[in-house]
Recover the amino acids of this structure.
């Protein structure tokens, strides 16, 4: 897995996950979220457009990141999730707390 | 058909893996499943369920097996496809699983752990676990709907 960092036009942090988010890569993702929080960016969009696979370890890392962004006064949104990721979110009922957004730029448009 | 021709999706395919139970094993698992679906774009939903279940089992083995003196263990995987069915057997030489993994419930949305076994239950049509004399054996099967 590789991570790409970006910023939306509105100034929100973007973390793009390229490849698989599993036990192997969860720590790297967590470190990237911590990095954004340390920089004062607590509104984070996770761009999943190029995420080829996610499992329960990956989901756990997302839930943990969501909590930490909220504790810092921000929020975490997920965007452009492919079918495999959407499927895992639905199976675990996590689509209720990590509601999939269509686009990165619009991820913070509605509450 | 010559031996060099790709095997059609409906033809039985079987692959094996035997490696140290460490995170790198996960990459090998994905490669093995890639091979089971090589040159075959049928049954993508089956692949999705099957790949998730196998990865969850091997992750569990890697995280919890502690049999060898250096703290590591081995994991063996046999996986295959036959008709609409994808099956796998995972054997490790790790410690006793202190509960019945086939009875795991899905934790609440706040949980950061504990979804793996519940996911296997959800996506597989068959899921068995048994303690071996010196390890654990997990079997799963997913059947294309």
């Amino acid at each position: 897995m590789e991570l790409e960092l970006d910023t939306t036009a509105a100034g929100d942090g973007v973390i793009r996950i390229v490849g698989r988010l599993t036990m192997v890569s969860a720590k790297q993702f967590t470190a990237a979220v911590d990095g954004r929080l340390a920089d004062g960016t607590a509104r984070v969009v996770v761009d999943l457009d190029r995420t080829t696979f996610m499992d329960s370890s990956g989901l756990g890392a997302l839930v943990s990141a969501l909590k930490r962004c909220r504790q810092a006064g921000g929020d975490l949104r997920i965007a452009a999730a492919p079918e495999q990721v959407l499927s895992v979110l639905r199976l675990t009922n996590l689509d209720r707390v990590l509601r999939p957004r269509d686009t990165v730029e619009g991820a913070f448009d509605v509450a | 058909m010559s031996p060099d021709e790709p095997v059609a999706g409906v033809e039985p395919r079987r692959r094996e893996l035997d490696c140290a139970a460490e995170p790198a094993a996960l990459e090998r698992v994905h490669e093995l499943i890639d091979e089971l679906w090589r040159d075959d774009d049928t049954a993508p939903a089956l692949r999705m369920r099957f790949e998730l279940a196998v990865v969850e089992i091997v992750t569990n083995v890697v995280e919890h097996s502690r049999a060898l003196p250096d703290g590591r263990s081995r994991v063996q995987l046999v996986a295959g496809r036959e008709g609409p069915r994808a099956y796998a057997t995972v054997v490790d030489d790790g410690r006793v699983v202190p509960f019945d993994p086939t009875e795991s419930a899905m934790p609440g949305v706040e949980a950061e752990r504990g979804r793996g076994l519940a996911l296997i239950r959800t996506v597989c049509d068959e899921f068995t676990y048994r303690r071996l004399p010196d390890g654990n054996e997990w079997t799963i099967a997913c059947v294309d709907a």
Remarks:
- Chain A touches chain B at residues 20, 22-24, 53, 55-57, 59-61, 63-64, 67, 83-84, 87-88, 91-94, 96-97 (CB under 8 Å).
- Chain A has three helices and six strands.
- Chain A has a mean pLDDT of 97.
- Residues 56-71 of chain A form the longest helix (16 residues).
